[in-house]
Amino acid sequence: MDNPAGKKLWGGRFTQGVAKSVEAYTESISFDWRLWQFDIEGSKAHAKMLAKQQIITDSDASAILKGLDEIAGEIRAGSFVFRQELEDVHMNVESALIDRIGDPGRKLHTARSRNDQVALDVRLYVRAGIKEVQRLIREFQRTLVSVAEENVHCIMPGYTHMQRAQPVTLAHHLLAYVEMLARDYERFDDAYKRADSLPLGACALAGTTLAVDRDFVADTLGFSRMCENSMDAVSDRDFVIEFISNSSIVMMHLSRMAEEIVLWATKEFAFIEISDAYTTGSSIMPQKKNPDIAELLRGKTARVYGSLMSILTLMKALPLTYNRDMQEDKLPMFDTADTVTASLFMINEMFQAIAFDVKRMYETASGGFALATDLAEYLVNKGVPFRSAHEITGRCVRYCIENKKELHELTLEEFKTFSGVIEADVYVFVQLEKSVELKSSRGGTSPDEVARQIARLKEDLSVRLY
């Protein structure tokens, strides 16, 4: 065996072996093994470049490529053994390659450092992660638009301060989340540009005296540009921070929806019924049906926030260039990717299993003086200044509360005691359907305007990604 267990590939200048406790403390293979596919992809591109530049022979490159493909096959099959004493995924793959093909394997690391190698692997991982998150965002948007299209005329109360405010449609409410997710998608689009920069060729920090062709590697790996400063190339983790930051915003949006799902599923609201498949019961209370998926989603949002604070704190005081601290960037990155993708998948699946009680929503929207603003605007249309209209309507509401009536239950004579400009046409403005229908300003809740929004969104979302 060319590289026996315990011998470090970097151990030439050392006379004493590393303590087992140090190996255990410093290893990252227990988690960075997940980068193996990207590590091999990057190594293959690097080997092709070295051969193209005649830094290694074509036969050496062929042996390297064949050996890497065999290692990849073993990892996929689950038969490859990652060794802790080899520290990380990079050294495990390289050591296995040397064991397999001998001296040609020793040439792979020419004009490359683990510093630019790991930077490459992480960028490839983040690029793939961004695409997957965007795909799941699109899928959830399509679900929301589909449900909205079925509920364009479903009237429900809209809230401010968790108090009934004005009637809206369920479709309009759901489309608000579609817009949030659209911004999330755009943020990842923008973040992708900065992840899409090739660091390989920077070596440890200063570049190399060898005649490498970084443009070739960039083209081979599909990078649109390359890192122009070798010191920045190996020390930059902004793209990881952006990925986690953008994921935090996605989780915040999903958590807001999860909170509404939890509320709407209560007997106090009773707006929805979640399928039994996406709820759990109590170990002691037989009647319980708990919205655990939505609750866990709220909890997992805190987890992603924690990852964001972790990576920001990790990077905040690091001098140039690479420092071993940066090994700790992967756990929050991996955990964030796992959490945000699982959460998007689950909320999309659960949402398709929610039944809306449109009758209950309508009945709830009918109470609580949700049409008070409509009455004030009616007075404005009659020439009353808005502040005066606001005061008049407020007195009407107080009168209704004292007399246990809703606005539409007042007689015309009662209305006129508050303002002489009120006529019989006022009753049009204190009807739920008419109230919603008249909210036809762009972006409003009228069925016609919501239908226009849905048509626009369906066109925008019809393009499949990647």
Count of alpha/pi helices:
19
How many domains is the backbone divided into?
A: 3
Major sheet details: 2 strands, antiparallel
- The CATH superfamily name of the largest domain is Fumarase/aspartase (Central domain)
Helix proportion: 55-70%
Secondary-structure-based class equals mainly alpha
| Secondary structure: number of strands | 6
Radius of gyration (Å): 31 Å
What would you call the shape? elongated
Distance between the termini: 43 Å
Strand order of the biggest β-sheet: 1-2
| CATH level 1 name of the largest domain | Mainly Alpha
Low-pLDDT sequence parts? 1-5
Succession of helices and strands: HHHHHHHEEHEHEHHEHHEHHHHHH
Query: What is the CATH topology of the largest domain?
Result: Fumarase C, Chain A, domain 2
CATH architecture of the largest domain: Up-down Bundle
β-strand percent reads under 5%
Multimeric organization: single chain
Average pLDDT level: 94
How would you explain this protein's 3D organization?
The protein has 466 residues and is mainly α. It has three domains: 11-110, Fumarase/aspartase (N-terminal domain) (Fumarase C, Chain B, domain 1); 115-148 and 162-357, Fumarase/aspartase (Central domain) (Fumarase C, Chain A, domain 2), CATH 1.20.200.10; 364-461, Orthogonal Bundle (Ribonucleotide Reductase Protein R1, domain 1), CATH 1.10.40. Helix content is 60%, strand content 5%. The protein is built from 19 helices and six strands. The strands form three sheets. A two-stranded antiparallel sheet has the order 1-2. A two-stranded parallel ribbon has the order 3-4. It has a two-stranded antiparallel sheet with strand order 5-6. Helix 9 links the parallel strand 3 and strand 4 (225-226). Helix 3 packs antiparallel against helix 4, helix 7 (114-150) runs antiparallel to helix 8 (170-195) and helix 15 (372-381) packs across helix 16 (386-403). It is elongated, with a radius of gyration of 31 Å.
